[in-house]
């Protein structure tokens, strides 16, 4: 008996568990009669619906009058009831008394008597509000995800485990616009693959197409790395496939055209650099901050005498002359600190054979990217011969300067030594011409005296010119600047030549305007310039000619002195010649006109000391104009005088 009571208690406990099932599943039972009026609502009805059972019992489904959102489904449900058909999972929503929307799922089966007469319905109803809400939330999240994917700059496509397309965003259709119509849910992966082949490079034979498809399928089954697709329109698309846990495949693609072209351009630059580096006739080396060689070309190896393998275990200091090593290290350190800059300097190297060679070294910092170790590229040109030639030239120049100074000193000393007896010769010839101690018995003596006097004067002028030139070359002439009244200076100089011009039957005129500004210049040198110019003009002008001296203020406020004549003139091609020392024009020899050929060279030097210039314009047989221009900075306004 005890065992029976225990068995009954166990059965009641099991039954209680079954009674809890409807509550846990949020289910309730219902029944109707043959007129479809509710006759039974289980105890869970009120808790799950929020409605009073008494308001429902005895009424038909239509009479309950609950709000409906899907009228079409409602009409189908009423039709099922009217035709005694079973129905399953009919869902509808209604507004509960608390104002919340609830959703239920109804299933029902018709009941028939033994004689086949219709007795009504019995069934279950489940509150699925929470499930519907979760589904709505999930659907909303899915919609937002799809919208977000459409805004993505990358193409995204999802295939399910059966390789059927589930999702494709806008960007992916843009990337593969040639097959955009096929990128819709349900399309097969292999169909999309085949459809896109005509859009790709390179062109493939049917056999190659099958090989490529087999390769793609193998990648699809076990994706690793990135696929690169080159399209006929020049675009480059990169794809990456990821296998998901449920067997689905996520594909992400992006347009890599610009990056690919940029990388190709950089590769071409790198190849060009390598080619230029290797084939350059000048030595080139890439080194780190410690001076260790990272890379060298053949020309550099030839320059220092070591091969590449040897240099790879050496540094620049190993081939640098000890006296130049510290300076080189300082320049490298400066470039490394600034990570920029370029230096060019000459440096001595010691070759493998022990010879000392000189290289013109140019260094610059290589761009190796942020955070990377600084590298320096060095270019070296062998200038050993040039440096040797420069040293020889420098020595020769120093020797020439010493010789030139010795010559100038010699000329200056000799000029002084010659002037003393020459002045005596000229003085005595003048006494003889003046016949101060009685007349000549023979007229030919007078002619000889005149020749002696003229030759002495010519020689004295030559010596004076040599002396002036020696002083200029020796740098012994110093400007003693004063404010010069140009018209007065010209007038005074013309008076010196008045007798000479008159005896030569030449008209000598002063056309300098009296209102010309003063000139800041060395008076003695300026007079010497005028003397040489007027002397030359008279010398090369035949009897009956004219020599004119004038001056003007130019548009740039410079003072320009002009000496013009109507003499024999100069051939245009000979003008550079007569400006040189001892330069003589052909017409001077033709007309037997004496001269040293130093006058214009001295003028060039004297006007050069004043930062001025001389210009010569001449017409053979018609005359010459010489313009001497003092810069505007030497023009003195009247109020400053």
Describe the structure.
This protein is an alpha+beta fold and 641 residues long. Helix 13 runs antiparallel to helix 14, helix 14 packs parallel to helix 20 (599-609) and helix 17 (523-539) packs antiparallel against helix 20. The longest helix is centred in the middle third of the chain and has 51 residues, at 384-434. The termini are far apart.
Describe the structure concisely for a colleague:
With 641 residues, this protein is an alpha+beta fold. It contains 20 helices and 24 strands. It is elongated, with a radius of gyration of 59 Å.
Topology overview:
Elements: H1 2-25, E1 27-32, E2 38-41, H2 44-49, H3 61-64, H4 71-82, E3 87-95, E4 101-112, E5 118-127, H5 129-151, E6 155-159, E7 165-168, H6 170-175, H7 189-196, E8 200-201, H8 206-221, E9 227-231, E10 236-243, E11 249-255, H9 257-279, E12 283-288, E13 293-296, H10 298-304, H11 308-311, H12 322-338, E14 342-350, E15 356-366, E16 375-382, H13 384-434, H14 443-473, E17 481-484, H15 486-496, H16 498-503, E18 507-510, E19 518-522, H17 523-539, E20 546-553, E21 559-565, H18 575-578, H19 586-590, H20 599-609, E22 613-619, E23 623-630, E24 635-636
Estimated radius of gyration: 59 Å
> Would you report the number of β strands?
24
Straight-line N-to-C gap: 155 Å
Mean pLDDT: 83
Structural class call reads alpha+beta
Quaternary structure type: single chain
Order of strands across the biggest sheet? 7-6-11-10-9-8
Note the overall shape: elongated
Question: What fraction of the residues are assigned to beta strands by DSSP?
Answer: 15-25%
Largest pleated sheet: 6 strands, antiparallel
